[in-house]
Design goal:
The chain is built from three helices and three strands, in the order H-E-E-H-E-H. It is an alpha/beta fold. It has a single domain, classed as Rossmann fold (3-Layer(aba) Sandwich). The protein has a three-stranded parallel β-sheet with strand order 1-2-3, with helices on both faces. Helix 2 links the parallel strand 2 and strand 3. It starts with a helix and ends with a helix.
Length: about 120
């Protein structure tokens, strides 16, 4: 629910935010892809980075890409990750490596937003 709430708050406070990072967007309840949670997305008008596991039962990155299409909206797919980015034990990466990669990508995205804001683009 945190990712959904964060994006809803961003629709109201977008004028004072540089962007929003969402860790696992709950596009729909697990097993109910017809119950979309997207009503506020049209009002979202700032850069967004969504970190989403490829096995997320609340919506896969492929499902999200249909709704998060505005310029500045990015989806970082965590290969093999669930809603909490946990990967299967059979994964080629340790859980610590997965979390470290996510942190690095978020940091890089934030730096990009700062640079874009400083240059006015």
């Amino acid at each position: 629910m945190g990712g959904r709430i964060a994006s809803q708050i961003a629709t109201r406070l977008g004028h004072i935010l540089a962007g929003v990072v969402v860790l696992g967007y709950p596009l729909h309840p697990p097993g109910k892809p017809g119950q979309l949670r997207i009503s506020h997305l049209d009002a979202l008008s700032l850069p967004v980075l969504i970190v989403q596991g490829s096995r997320d039962s609340f919506g896969t990155p492929a499902e999200l890409r249909r709704w998060f299409t505005k310029p500045g909206m990015s989806i970082l797919e965590v290969k093999g990750g669930d809603h909490s980015f946990r990967v299967l034990k059979s994964s080629q990466r340790s859980q610590a490596e997965v979390y470290s990669e996510i942190q690095d990508k978020i940091r890089d995205w934030i730096v990009e937003q700062i640079k874009a804001g400083a240059s006015g683009t």
